[in-house]
Structure formats: C-alpha cells, structure tokens
Amino acid sequence: MITRAHLEALDRADPLAPFRALFTLPDGVVYLDGNSLGALPRATPARVAEVVAREWGEGLIRSWNDAGWIEAPARIGAKIGRLIGAPAGTVTVADSTSVNLFKLLGAALDQRPDRRVILSERSNFPTDLYIAEGLAALLGRGHTLRLVDAGEIPAAIGADTAVVMLTHVNYHTGAMFDMAAITRAAHAAGALMLWDLAHSAGAVPVDLAAADADLAVGCGYKFLNGGPGAPAFLYVAERLQQEARFPLTGWLGHAAPFAFEHSYRPAPGIARAVVGTPPMISVAALEVGVDIALQAPMDGVREKSLQQTRIFAELVAQECPGHGLRLASPSDPARRGSQVCFAHEHAYPIMQALIARGVIGDFRAPDVLRFGITPLYLGYAELWDAVQTLRAVLAGNEWQQPQFNERRKVT
C-alpha cells in the first residue's frame, strides 16, 4: 500500500528535487499539465526584460548583430538537438509545429514523387492530420492521407507510402511508439519517416540519429518550458538536406538573405528550413527553458517519470475504486510517455472540479482526464495530494455542480 510518508521519503532522496527551485509555481497548486503548457522558469522574466529593455530598447536594430539575434534559431536548435539525439546542423528553431509539419510533409512528398500516401494513425493529434489533409488537397495530384490503428502501422506501410507521420507519444493516451522499429519498417518499404516530438522532447529519451529518423518536428512550450505559443523546431537528417525542397520558402531561408535577390536560392543545410524573421522575445524565453532541460540528466528524468506515472496510476486504483475511472494509458509504464490518462463518462466536469481545488490537469474529448508528469518540478508527495483531491471530488459528487459542467473554450 502506498502512503504519503513513503512518497515524502522519495522526495527527500530525489536527485532532481533541486530543479523545483528553478521554476515559479503558485502555492496550493499541484500542476499536472506541463504536457500542455510548461511551468514558468524563474529566470525567464529577467531574460525577457533584458531583451525588451536593453537589447531592443537600447540596442535597437543593432541587436540582430550585437546581441546575436540572427544566430538564435540555429544556436537554440543545436541545443534542442542535444536533447533529441540530433547531430549539429540538423535542427533549427522556426515557426509553429503545424507550419513546420507542412514544410516537412511537402519536402517528403517531393522526395517521393511516385508515391501518393501519407500514412498516420487515427488517434494522431488532429492538427497533424489537418495539415496533411490540407497539403494533399492543395497538391491536387492524387495525394491522400491514410489512417489506420496504431498497431496496424507497420503492416500498412506499402509501395505507395511516401511518408509515415506519427506522434512519438500520443497526446490522448500517452502511448509511446518504438521509434527505431517503426522507422526501420518505413525505410524497408522505401518510405520516409516523420516524427512529431511534441510530447517527447525534454520528457523521454529520444535519439533521432540512432533511430535513423528522416524528419521531425516539435514544440517549445510543453516539457521545454518556453512559454505559451513558444517557437517550435524541426529536424532534417543531414543526408536529406541538400535535396530538400520546402513548400514555404522565405527570405531568411535564402542563401544570401541580405542580398535581396529576386529569385530564391536555398541556404545550405538546415538554414533553408527557416522562413521568416524569428520572434526574438519568444525565442529568448524558449532558450531559458531549453537550458534548464540540458542541465538535467535525461536518464534520471525518465527514471523519475516512470516511477511517478506508475505511482500515480496505482494511487488512483488504490484510493478511488468504484468511481468509474478506467486507465486509458498503457498499463506498462515503459510504453507510455510522461503522462497518465483515465477515461470517465463525466471527465470534463470532474477535471473542472479538480482545477477549482488547485489540482490542474486537463480534459481531452470525449472522456479523458489527462495528467502530465513533469519530473523537474513535480514532487512525489504531490501525487498523493492530487489523488486525495480526486477522491474527494468523486466521493462528494462535486463535479455535479452546474459551474463545472459549463464548457469553456480551452479544456
């Protein structure tokens, strides 16, 4: 039986505990939504203020050179590369995850001109599917998005598959693909492999080079703690860069941006994937979060994540039996990312009641309570407190109160 005293002992022995002090978290809140929006690093406000007041306010346009603004996408991209097993020169910071996905899918289809299928899983994150649908319709050459269940992916990769597009850790359940095995299956069929790392980067070990991945995208505002709407990143394997042709080509992806030539010439390497001017205030905030992630040993982060997801699932089973909760994540902790999800027919009002009590997770339609596990700032005893709050909400039927059943725009 798990007790709070046992979890307090784990907190005292936790080698990652000092990282909690690097984040600003409100008193009385158990934050279990870092897989949607990461917490605020304490150093971020000062860094943003420095960019605004000194680099912009005093340096003005000179800061593109003097403060290193123009090199920031490549510099931070290289740092992110260290978190995802990507060699130098293969990652850059740019745009949003959706825009980057559009660019990479377009490049992938261009490199497989005789193939017309983008293959993905039915439960992939909707925006990934929307981008693929839109691109296929825009091309108008018989391209199509084919969806199958996750377990059917390897067998569904065929001679007509141009690119396999998957999210490494599923947003809805936390289920995690075997990146190396799926990539091998794609390559064996002659297809390219594109991974969405939105729920992976900074949360679970990723080694794109070892998996021989072709393409990848990811966001900066979840486990990288870059702030709401933080810039995203993309990866292109070095072997593909020279021939990569992106459907969006902008001036900063030009070989000589300040020559202001009237025809596009792609920059060498990953730089050609950049489109427009980087949003430097947001880029600076992102770098703070990335630097913190680089300080933490990923093996230690994963070890704590595995332990915390296991404990949380077991605590819910121990403390909340008979209330209709069903584990929606894989039962094996090693097969899930850094989140635990439960299905319940009244998931939305239950989550709203939890949030009102200071336990912040989120809801995903149609019936999932989603709890993100962020080892750098989440303690073990907080898991106990969160589950006790869940137990109280369920036992007292608090979720039935009218205010908790009124749907908000963001769930």
UniProtKB/TrEMBL annotation:
Pfam families referenced in this protein's UniProt entry, alphabetically: KYNU_C
Reaction(s) this enzyme catalyzes, per UniProt: 3-hydroxy-L-kynurenine + H2O = 3-hydroxyanthranilate + L-alanine + H(+); L-kynurenine + H2O = anthranilate + L-alanine + H(+)
Pathway: Cofactor biosynthesis; NAD(+) biosynthesis; quinolinate from L-kynurenine: step 2/3; Amino-acid degradation; L-kynurenine degradation; L-alanine and anthranilate from L-kynurenine: step 1/1
N6-(pyridoxal phosphate)lysine sites (modified residues): 222
MF terms (GO), sorted A to Z: kynureninase activity; pyridoxal phosphate binding
Co-factor requirement: pyridoxal 5'-phosphate
GO BP field: anthranilate metabolic process; L-kynurenine catabolic process; L-tryptophan catabolic process to kynurenine; NAD+ biosynthetic process; quinolinate biosynthetic process
EC identifiers of the protein: 3.7.1.3
Highest rank taxon of the organism: Bacteria
Chain positions recorded as pyridoxal 5'-phosphate binding sites: 97-98, 125-128, 167, 196, 199, 221, 251, 277
Keyword Thylakoid part of the UniProt annotation: no
InterPro entries: Kynureninase (IPR010111), PyrdxlP-dep_Trfase (IPR015424), PyrdxlP-dep_Trfase_major (IPR015421), PyrdxlP-dep_Trfase_small (IPR015422)
Assigned keywords, A-Z: Hydrolase, Pyridine nucleotide biosynthesis, Pyridoxal phosphate
GO cellular component: cytoplasm
Role summary: Catalyzes the cleavage of L-kynurenine (L-Kyn) and L-3-hydroxykynurenine (L-3OHKyn) into anthranilic acid (AA) and 3-hydroxyanthranilic acid (3-OHAA), respectively.
Assembly and interaction partners: Homodimer.
Protein family according to the UniProt entry: Belongs to the kynureninase family.
Record's protein name: Kynureninase
Gene from which the chain derives: kynU
